[in-house]
Amino acid sequence: MTEERTLIIGASGGIGSALAEMSQARGEVIGLSRRADGLDLTDEASIERVLGGLAGTFDRILVTTGALQIGEAGPEKTIRALDPADMAAQFALNAIGPALVLKHLLPLVPRDRRSVVAVLSARVGSIGDNHIGGWISYRAAKAAVNQVLRTSAIEYGRLRKQAILVALHPGTVQTDLTGPYLGRHKAVTPPEAAANLIRVIDGLTPEDSGHFFDWAGKPVPW
Ligand SMILES: NC(=O)c1ccc[n+]([C@@H]2O[C@H](COP(=O)([O-])OP(=O)(O)OC[C@H]3O[C@@H](n4cnc5c(N)ncnc54)[C@H](OP(=O)(O)O)[C@@H]3O)[C@@H](O)[C@H]2O)c1
């Protein structure tokens, strides 16, 4: 197998670190995080600085940052609990953050070979699949990042013909993010989630660019 280069943005997270570890067997892995590299997705200057410091291009670029609870603000159970500052923080991290990454990422995406840029979204960001309500700010931020991804995929498609941009739902995974909210929900381990996501990523074709898939490779409705 030819050596691949993988870039993980959010490599300190549960899913991000499992993806980084699992990608080692395939070649060079560069893992970036807020904690280790000062790459804060709510600070464009840090994104520009850290991504601008990377050389060469990558076969896989995985954006695995995000939060369900930011500070004291957990997901709302009702619209009556909505706080505008908390909602803005959700958008800053989960929607605008990946958008800024996509803004500064183009030089790292190869012109001459296949590459995949995957942003971890969440099934709860699906508008068509929303039957139980709640978690308004997180859902809305994920719906927004899906639109960002879709729109960027169209533009990237013109500039990088072999680039495949997708939004991925990793399944329900045992990480710090889900810890307080899992209850009796079934959840997979981060290595299981990483294996599932890599399987999906490996099977993607250019026609899949701009779409939203779950951990099994099944399309998720927008
Ligand atoms: N776990 C699930 O069941 C599940 C389900 C659906 C979707 N997802 C999505 O999958 C992604 C990863 O989730 P996870 O479960 O792996 O979460 P996690 O273990 O809590 O990891 C979150 C990651 O996000 C980073 N992060 C948080 N705020 C940041 C900021 N301002 N700037 C830069 N990095 C920041 C953290 O970096 P530091 O530690 O360095 O701060 C960490 O690397 C998220 O987008 C989440 O919405 C997860």
What does this protein structure show overall?
The relative contact order is 0.16. The chain has a six-stranded parallel beta sheet, sandwiched between helices. It has helices at 14-23, 34-37, 44-52, 84-105, 136-159, 190-203; strands at 4-9, 27-32, 60-63, 115-120, 163-169, 211-214. The chain has a single domain (4-214), classed as 3-Layer(aba) Sandwich (Rossmann fold), CATH 3.40.50. Helix 3 (44-52) packs parallel to helix 4 and helix 4 runs parallel beside helix 5 (136-159). The chain is of the alpha/beta class and 222 residues long. Bound molecules: NADP nicotinamide-adenine-dinucleotide phosphate. NADP nicotinamide-adenine-dinucleotide phosphate is lined by residues 10, 12-16, 33-35, 39-42, 64-67, 93, 120, 122, 169-170, 172-173, 175-178.
What is the total domain count? 1
Largest β-sheet summary: 6 strands, parallel
Which class in CATH terms?
Alpha Beta
Instruction: Write the H/E string, N to C.
Output: EHEHHEHEHEHE
Proportion of strand residues? 5-15%
According to CATH, the fold-level topology is Rossmann fold
